[in-house]
């Protein structure tokens, strides 16, 4: 594994096991270890860059982008497996950006990607790593994007090269229901989305970075899921390279930067 050339990272945890994913030198590394002891359970690699890892139950699904093959997808269950298993990933060569996140129910995950054509696809995967029907997003080129679902909607956050950040909401059947709606601020790196439904109101929050150096801030903006009515925002001083929100109880939300 590289010691000085790590450029991209991700992480996930489940069942007392942590996976740290990182890229360097054209290879993505995935290190699984026991949280309580730090002891290594399994290590593996995928070709390419932009590592992602999500946990569904006790199973970890991890991805990379290979410029020749497109997206690569594998899974590993530390409770039963001694090696990783390659799965069928979306064919997403000529890629601008992508992301992978667990769904709100914990029964699967989403893979969202934007190609240079440009096209955008949002693909649901079940707990076995089998893809469902894709939702077709906008034909716009993006430099960053991510996705999250609430009870009755799937939400897409995108960033163009300008940069402009927008959110769109789709029905679970794949029809655009609301958006595009711009958020306040010029995001510079990977945004994140979180289901922040509270007291029966279906809503989501987008986390994003603005500014550089001493003027770097972590911002967030909350939207209603159906009409994109804004429900509050935050502006916190921080230097960072993107946001990864996590849910801890209800309604306790945190952002790791």
Overview of the molecule:
Strands 1-2-3-4 form a 4-stranded antiparallel beta sheet, with no helix packed on it. A 4-stranded antiparallel beta sheet has the order 5-6-7-8, with no helix packed on it. Helices cover 0% and strands 57% of the residues. With 257 residues, the chain is mainly beta.
Give a quick precis of the structure.
It is built from no helices and 22 strands.
What is the topology?
Blueprint lengths: L7 E7 L2 E8 L2 E8 L5 E8 L1 E8 L2 E8 L3 E7 L8 E3 L7 E8 L5 E8 L3 E8 L8 E2 L7 E6 L3 E7 L5 E7 L4 E7 L9 E4 L7 E8 L6 E8 L5 E8 L6 E4 L5 E4 L1
Antiparallel strand pairs: 1-2, 2-3, 3-4, 5-6, 6-7, 7-8, 9-10, 10-11, 11-12, 13-14, 14-15, 15-16, 17-18, 18-19, 19-20, 21-22
| Rough outline | globular
Distance between the termini: 23 Å
β-strand amount? over 45%
Question: What is the makeup of the main sheet?
Answer: 4 strands, antiparallel
- Helical proportion? under 10%
Q: Count of DSSP E strands?
A: 22
In order across it, which strands form the biggest sheet? 1-2-3-4
Overall residue-averaged pLDDT value: 89
The stretches of 5 or more residues where confidence is low (pLDDT under 50) are 239-243, 245-257
- Rg, rounded, reads 18 Å
**Helix-strand makeup class:** mainly beta
Write down the secondary-structure element order: EEEEEEEEEEEEEEEEEEEEEE
Put simply, the count of helices is 0
């Amino acid at each position: 594994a590289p010691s000085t050339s790590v450029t991209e990272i991700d992480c996930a945890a489940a069942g007392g096991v942590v996976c740290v994913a990182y890229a360097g030198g054209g290879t993505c590394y995935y290190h699984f270890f026991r949280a309580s002891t730090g002891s290594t359970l399994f290590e593996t690699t995928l070709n390419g860059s932009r590592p992602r890892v999500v946990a569904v139950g006790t199973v970890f699904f991890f991805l990379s982008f290979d410029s020749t093959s497109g997206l690569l997808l594998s899974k590993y269950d530390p409770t039963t497996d001694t090696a990783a298993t390659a799965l069928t990933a979306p064919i997403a060569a000529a890629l601008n950006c992508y992301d992978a996140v667990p769904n709100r129910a914990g029964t699967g995950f989403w893979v969202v990607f934007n190609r240079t054509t440009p096209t955008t696809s949002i693909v649901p995967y079940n707990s076995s790593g089998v893809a469902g029907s894709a939702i077709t997003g906008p034909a716009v080129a993006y430099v960053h994007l991510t996705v999250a679902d609430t009870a009755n909607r799937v939400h897409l956050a995108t960033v163009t090269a300008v940069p402009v950040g927008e959110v769109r909401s789709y029905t679970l059947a794949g029809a655009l229901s609301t958006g595009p709606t711009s958020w306040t601020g010029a995001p510079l790196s990977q945004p994140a989305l979180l289901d922040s439904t509270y007291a029966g109101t279906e809503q989501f929050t987008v986390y994003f970075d603005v500014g550089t150096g001493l003027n770097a801030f972590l911002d967030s903006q909350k939207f209603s899921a159906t009409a994109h009515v804004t429900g509050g925002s935050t502006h916190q001083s921080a230097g960072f390279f993107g946001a990864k929100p996590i849910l801890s109880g209800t309604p306790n939300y945190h952002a790791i930067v």
